[in-house]
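Proteins fold reproducibly. Take a sample protein:
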Amino acid sequence: LASGCEASPDGCCQQRVPAARAGSGMDPEGEALLLQEARESVEAARSYRRELQQRLRGLQQARKQIRESAALTRDVLEQHFNDLKGTLRKLLDERLVLLLQEVDAIEQESIKPLDECQKLIEHGVSTADDLLQEGESVIHEVMGEQNEKLCNFTKKALHIQLDSLPEVPALVDVPCLSAQLDDCLLTIVKNQIFNHGTVASRPPVQIEELTEKPGGILVRWCKVDDDFIPQDYRLQYRKSTANHFEDVYVGSEMEFIVLHIDPNVDYQFRVCARGDGRQEWSPWSIPQTGRSTLVPHEWTAGLEGYSLSSRRNIALRNDSQSCGVLYSKAPTYFCGQTLTFRIETVGQPDKRDSIGVCLEQQNGYDSLQRDKAVCISTNGAVFVNGKEMTNQLPAVTCGSTVTFDMEVVHLGPNNNEGGNTKLRVTISSNNREVVFDWVLDHSCGSLYFGCSFSYPGWKVLVF
């Protein structure tokens, strides 16, 4: 008989049913597998629903951004054009008043000689009326007294000079006022108004990346409008709890480190741009929120030869005769980060000056040009464990930035360099850099930084 079949009394072949499945329909292993698959399907559905809900929230935020920005844009446009209408109405009214005053002045100046001529003529008419009445009376009187009165009247008429008439100006010789109104002004204004203002669906620049730094945030932005030619950028920031943004950078660079950032506090950043040859700024980018969880770099307070700023990230070599190395308050520099020193002011250089990092604080030294330290001198010389390298960087000047970048490179157990860890160090200054390997006796998670200056006047900012 074939496997799984047995003979029945009537000689037919009947399939054998396992005992375990005869009652429940499935063995325990199959049930466990199905249960696991069901649980995975439920978890996948839950995860799927969570992702969909997250996308719904994203859509709601996108819709909210569109509606809020549209409402704000409407308010800005209405306010701007209402201001324009008010200003134009005021300017037109002022111009109308000036023109009307000019008409009044011309009218008064032109009417005055006519008024004087009118008075003279009216006086002549009155005199002629009196003479006419007197003459008519004399002519009709009695003949006995007529000769004397006629003689007196004739003398009087001769004295009046009845043939002398005042000159009245011709109409072509007197002003005829009119207004010359050039209709092209309306065309010019119409064209300017029709081309005034634009509506953009998105700002021409956007914040691209926020990178936390010790006590600061590096903000990078990019241009997203290919037709926009930027001349300057303007970066603002504020604490998320503040009401107003404040300027932190204006310039042509497309990144900036915002310092004086409190750790574990949210800050908002936004950027705009000014087009080439234009005075107005573009719309602001969408605000981005960032924070720094890294402890700010601070110098150790209390060393007699140095004065520190309120945030203790700026050290000034003072006039004290005390000499020594000023170290960081704690080993806050970690490999993989960039440590930056910016020289704010300079003093007299000395070959023992040093700016760099070290494994540990060691008192009694006047420079970082010692064992377990790497540094650069103000004359550009690079020292590793107290030994000067052949490669040299440019001398440090006012405004110079010196950066240290370190990357951990683990050595094998059978290495011939006598250590189990080395750091690949890159020191950059004034667009030049040196790269070397710094071998350590043991692994080190964080490093101190320090500086030393023999003469006063040096001021250095660390971030």
